[in-house]
Design goal:
The complex is a heterodimer of chains A (222) and B (236). Chain A has 222 residues and is an alpha/beta fold. Chain A has one domain: Glutaconate Coenzyme A-transferase (3-Layer(aba) Sandwich), CATH 3.40.1080. Chain A has 5 helices and 13 strands. In chain A, the strands form 2 sheets. In chain A, strands 4-3-2-1-5-8-10-11-12-13 form a 10-stranded mixed sheet, sandwiched between helices. In chain A, a hairpin with a 4-residue loop joins strand 6 and strand 7. Chain A is globular and about 50 Å long. In chain B, strand 6 and strand 7 form a beta hairpin. Chain B has one domain: Glutaconate Coenzyme A-transferase (3-Layer(aba) Sandwich), CATH 3.40.1080. Chain B is built from 7 helices and 11 strands. In chain B, helix 2 runs parallel beside helix 3 and helix 5 crosses helix 6. By secondary structure, chain B is α/β, with parallel strands linked by helices. The termini of chain B are far apart. In chain B, strands 1, 2, 3, 4, 8, 9, 10 and 11 form an 8-stranded mixed sheet that branches. A 3-stranded antiparallel sheet of chain B has the order 5-7-6. The chains are: A alpha/beta (222), B alpha/beta (236). Chains A and B meet through helix 3 and helix 4 of A and helix 4, helix 5, helix 6 and helix 7 of B.
């Protein structure tokens, strides 16, 4: 848990696994591209969860076996998927009615930065030569009831991604409910950030040093 | 007798004029009407405004239409994706205009356009750069931004099957923008893999009612964009 290249705290799969514990039985869930996609593999047994993909499917199933892929059955990342028994297809306006009309319970997204007030930046660096592309991110954070973020605690360079104020363009203001990083679990509360859990081997001091915003500490950790 | 069927893709797009606004269905390759787009490349209309979620991949379909300099403006939510190089290169050179719209706002703008709704309010993009310069208003203490319904002269849509009335069914996640784009265009042009006799589609299962469809062209074995890209094909 120290130098560069060595996993500190939780690895990607463990972050996804920890997040999955907070997905309740019966939830309708939208998972973002990357680590969030891995959450589906870790939902505890006995819980039935229905996955929504914004390109028009409720009841997304796992990646099909090689040779079984269908170019007309893909997820939001344009990767081949399957549909579970009981799934349904719908057009884009219906799909975003589910999102914008607050029908989806949980969305798990990646982040470039999250602020202490729950602002999320995850769509653009704002660099002048970048091709801006937003997809459904702004709709998801504006409309889904609970927004979970999974992210490495710092950038590859070591810069904190949990900050006082986002410097990258916002996806939404005050939208994030909980942050899962390789170092711990942090809630976004009205009075600021609250550290709920530490990953194995991570100390309070260690996570505070790598967080660019004040952290309240949950009584269980003190 | 009502018969929406057209005999060739060339005939289906023949009257599209320079400067037209065209909605093109598809999310990535799923639902992309490649044969109709290629017919539009052959037809040659220029200075088009295209509304489509993405900007195509490789050098076929929508990417080829853009590469052929027929598109002056794209309205879309995600202009870059895997194997997408044509739009990014033209955009960086300042040779094509982009109106970036959040995906749900794009879908709702199309839906509203088709339903005769000139504008609506949404929470999406509030407090972001994409809401700058737009009118906003508070409802029940929450801020919403005004977005305009959007219409087009034509839409190009792909589906699984249709009948001569223009009733359509789709295939899996290739449905995506097709049904709403049929409603929002003056002339919806649809390519279907199969023509069905009237009554074959259970009325309970019709996805797009025929009233929205002006032209139906049967393309029995449509090309798959990712396969054309793997084969490094170019159009024309």
């Amino acid at each position: 848990m120290t130098s560069k290249g060595i996993v500190e705290g939780w690895d990607r799969a463990q972050m996804a696994q920890r997040t999955a514990l907070d997905i309740q039985d019966g939830a309708y869930v939208n998972l973002g591209i990357g680590i969030p996609e891995m959450v589906a593999g870790f939902v505890p047994e006995g819980r039935e969860v229905i996955y929504h993909t914004e390109n028009g499917l409720l009841g997304m199933g796992p990646t099909p076996e090689p040779g079984q892929e269908n170019p007309e059955l893909i997820n939001a990342g344009k990767k081949p998927i399957s549909a579970i028994s009981g799934a349904c297809y719908f057009h884009h306006a219906d799909s975003f009615t589910m999102i914008r009309g607050r029908h989806i319970d949980v969305c798990v997204l990646g982040a470039m930065q999250v602020s202490k007030g729950g602002d999320l930046a995850n769509w653009s660096t704002g660099a002048p030569d970048a091709i801006p592309a937003v997809g459904g991110a702004m709709d998801l954070v504006a409309g889904v009831k609970t927004i979970y973020v999974i992210t490495q605690h710092t950038t590859k360079k070591g810069d904190p991604k949990i900050v006082e104020n986002c410097t990258y363009p916002l996806t939404g203001k005050g939208v994030v409910n909980r942050i899962y990083t390789n170092l711990g679990v942090i809630d976004v509360n009205p009075d600021g950030l609250m550290l709920r859990e530490l990953a194995p081997g991570i100390t309070l001091e260690y996570i505070k040093d790598r967080t660019d915003a004040p952290l309240n500490i949950h009584p269980d950790l003190d | 007798m009502i018969d929406k069927q057209i005999n060739s893709v060339a005939q289906a797009v023949a009257d599209i004029k320079d400067g037209s606004t065209i909605m093109i269905g598809g999310f990535g390759e799923a639902g992309s009407p490649i044969e109709l787009i290629h017919a539009l490349i052959d037809q040659g209309a220029k200075n088009l405004t295209v509304i489509s979620n993405n900007t195509g991949s490789g050098h076929v379909g929508l990417a080829a239409l853009i590469e052929n300099k027929q598109v002056s403006k794209m309205i879309c939510s995600f202009p870059k994706s895997a194997n997408s190089t044509v739009f990014p290169e033209l955009y960086k050179k300042g040779q094509i205009e982009l109106e970036l719209v959040p995906q749900g706002t794009l879908a709702e703008r199309i839906r509203a356009g088709g339903a005769g709704i000139p504008a609506f309010y949404t929470a999406t993009s509030v407090n972001t750069s994409l809401a700058e310069g737009k009118e906003s208003r508070e409802f029940d203490g929450q801020t919403f931004v005004m977005e305009h319904g959007i219409k087009a002269d034509y839409s190009l849509v792909k589906c699984k099957a249709g009948d001569r009335y223009g009733n359509l069914i789709y295939n899996k996640t290739a449905r995506n923008f097709g049904p709403i784009m049929c409603t929002a265009a003056e002339t919806a042009i649809v390519q279907a893999e199969e023509l069905l006799e009237l009554g074959t589609i259970d009325p309970e299962q019709v996805v797009t009612p025929g009233i929205y469809v002006k032209r139906l062209i049967i393309v029995p074995n449509p090309a798959t964009e990712s396969q054309l890209v793997r084969e490094d094909r170019r159009y024309p």
